[in-house]
Amino acid sequence: MKKSLIASALLLAAPSFAANWQTIHTEHFNVHFSSEHTDFAKSTAVELEIVRTKVLEQQNRALDKIVDVVVFDPLNAANGFALPTSNNPVMALFTTPPQSDTVISNSSGWQQLLVLHEYIHLVHLAQPTRSEWQQKIRGVWDLYDLTYGDTPRWVAEGYATLIESKMTGRGRLFDNYSEAILREFAQQGALPTYGQLNSDEGFMAGSMAYLMGSRFLYWLEQNYSEQLVDNVWVRMRAVKSRDFDDAFSGVFGQSAAKLYRRFIAEYTYKAMQQEQTESPLNSKLWLKLDLYASNPVLSDDGSKIAIVERDKKSNTKLIIYSTEDNTKAQQQFTKAQKQLLEDDAKDIPDTAPSVFKREQKQILNQINRAGIANPQWVGNNTLYFNAYSSEESGTYNKVSDIFSYNIDTGNVEQLTELAGIRRFSVTRNGETLYGEQIRAGYSELVKVDLNTQAITPLFTKSLKTTYDYPTLSPDETKLAYLSASLNENWQLYIQDLSGDTRQSVPMPNGYQYLSQPSFSQNGESIYFVAGLNNKTDIYNYHIKNNTLTRLTNGQEALAYPIEAEDGSLLYFSINADGPDVKTLTTKNHTAVTDLAVNSEAPLLMVNKHTLPPAKIYTDETAEQSDYAVLDQQATFALGSQYYSASTSLLSVGIKSSDLLKQLDLQAGYNIDLHDGALHGGFVQAKYNALNTKFKLALFDYNLGTSHQYQPSLNADIDARGGFVAISHPLKFGQLQLTPELAYNYTDYKNSHKNWTRLSIAQQWQHDRQSFAIGQSIYASIYDGRNHNSHWQGYDLATKVFGKAFNIPMFVSFEQKQRDDSDLALGGFSSNLINQQQSSEFVLAAELPYYSATAERYQGYGGGISFKEGMPWFYYKQHQLDNSVYAQSYGLKYQGDFSFGMGPAGVNDLTFNAGLSRVEGDSFEDEMRAWLSFYYSL
User: Fold this and answer.
1) Is pLDDT at 341 greater than 50 in this prediction?
2) pTM higher than 0.70 for the full model?
């Protein structure tokens, strides 16, 4: 669905899958799931085999490998992804179904659409190459396997979207909502260029790989042939290495970029022709918005309108505007133009905007990246809204909850706990709400008593049915809501809350797309947006008279109609720069008499490859067993580390993991590429399935400091030993605590050492987007013995970090003390020597190992960056026994990448890079650099 590899990795950062998982084994798939997703997983297992059979017929290709499928719900949102490795292909299916106003809502069923889309990714991208030597490398090296071919994002997503539509007769290629938006882009000359297809900058840019990519590929099939398009994929797996551009040009005789320009010209021409046939819409701009916006809602007295907005920096805000005209802004504009002419009578003044931006009364920034969605007024001073909570069980699941915001005091309060409530409607007293609850793939309409936290289902839950937009009438006697069942369109119902009476709202014949219902001010009628013939329009249904009228005629891409107190109708007009709020100046009512006789969805393409109707399968058809943590998949693990102060290493090893990363194993050898300064072997293991985490490391290395790039104290260390640690992470909201107990035993040539460490790591942060504050503390005590002495010590490190005006910054302090034992300053972290298992080292990448020794170390530092995730401009001072030994400043970057699941080669990557000036009295001042990439558990 909507994702990229990196984006998915960020979404799934550092998860921890619990131990109680199950696996269903079919002929071609292993479906892994937790107990709460049993129903969804059992049905998915059947659907997967059906899809594979039909795709094999349609594509004449399939996968020979068993595909691992993970069924879960990490974000309480509709999504999924595929990791197309030829050796260990993986699919991840998120069980939460899409809402009605998304571009993926047009499907016969969420499960079927998701399985088909992600499996097409694997069949398309995970095919083995016909080059034997390259395929052998792919078979043993996950990272090479995953990046082989370098298929452009628009090709990967566009093709999966194309096939999803061709094999179901629905999907994004045949979606009225998508077409209405793309037509609007075309009429404004704003369709993405070929170079922008893979971009995510701009309104809906991230969706264009799917929407425009699929339409371009479909155009190629219609104007040339399906076989020619398929030939491109065949050429990309040839013995001769080709990228997509070479493969495409060789088939079509010209570049994809050139043919895309022709496609855009034809698409725009048709859109402009359509515009010529449309009468102007009697509307005017009411409020200019910034890029992304959603869910406008008027206060009870009509004096304020709340809108969720997201800017180009991805800052999400709930903004409350006054509904009054901004006379102050108008006066300031007039005054400025008058002054302009007084200064230069021949100057030409600015043209006044068609409407002055309405006054912003309050702004609520999202807190701790929890999002803001679906605001609802309670009175005129309080808003309820959706934001994410996190389960504190050690997993990373985000759950949609209800929060309140008092616009007078600024106070934000959480009203539900891990309820999984998405869209909702609240009573005037704020004590009861009706919402859609989504858990384990089940969508339910529920009534929530906020005083008692009691949640009461309104209907019997079923995986066959999805609900959306529960909307209370003004007198709170009726509840309108949307519902979609398998193989059907969305349908709008009005439920009498005092009884069992339910009324179905009639729809125009042939409709596809239905969303965003809202009652009129008097409750006698209901507005909504429906799609027909590649257009979206606003409709009104009069409840008592049972009459349906259309208020627009396809002139714009429309959303969110809401009636104001004066009877005027506000709505979102979607354009290439994002939606703006407009008002219909006159409502041209066109009676709709050609009505749909049922909610069955039209299939716009049917052939022998069309999938059977979507279904939820409940029969036991396959073997089920406990998840096998010992089912390890191994990969070649290659790393390299260069540090101009010390030495260079090449790391060669084998890394393995189960699919869910409950158990990770690694063994390897570090080869010194300089002069034998550091070399040795290591074995590592990490177990994460329980709330308590275990880590084990064995090492055998030789460090000869005289062989480093830079001079240092002379030390020749031959060490072998083991390290074991047990930790138990705890989380309380934004506060994280991790106690740990660790033990190390090391044998040297003529001695040995062992120590026990008890430590606690603590972190807290509060993020308000442009501004953030956080702190962390690490404290540990050591009790150790050498061959002839007993020593003790401690480590203390603290950091304060945050953002100001989106600029990240930090200051840090650390202190280490060893009684009757020395600390050695300098060197870099590796699988042989690192701060976790090596108590005698104070690692500093800009200094060689054993630059100096002392019993006490103090470090002071700080840094600033221009953007999150970018390199730091930093300063660091090193003190030994209260004397300054060295200082460094420059540019550095450190990033740990772990996908959280899947092949071992896409997890536990550590990347370090830096360039710094190092100064001190004991050595020559100079520039030093480092670059490091390796796997570490």
Assistant:
1) yes
2) yes
